[in-house]
Specification:
Helices cover 26% and strands 20% of the residues. By secondary structure, the protein is an alpha/beta fold. It has a five-stranded mixed beta sheet with strand order 3-2-1-4-5, with helices on one face. Helix 2 links the parallel strand 4 and strand 5. The protein is elongated.
Length: 108
Amino acid sequence: MPMINVAFLLLIFFLMTAVIAPLDPVRIDPPEADGSAEAAGDVVLFVEREGTLWRDGQRRTSLGPLSGLSVELRVARDLDGAILARVLADAQQAGAITVQLVVARPRE
């Protein structure tokens, strides 16, 4: 079997077995901060500038149960602080273990 056939078979294999990450339900421009820790949560919540909440790709009016879960929070850069405080308090009341605020690295 010529090497080009093997290369194409490997290419097809890797394309077929690759896991494609789902797209974010909304486009969020996160705030910037220094740091190198990677966020990893069981649940990803998106909060738009107006306070609209997204979970599991669907618009929500409440967080729902978060008992024993780690939450990754992605908020808009210009989100009002009062809305952020409300979302954090709601996550605590819903039973979230930890809430990680996702930020972007500053552009150099």
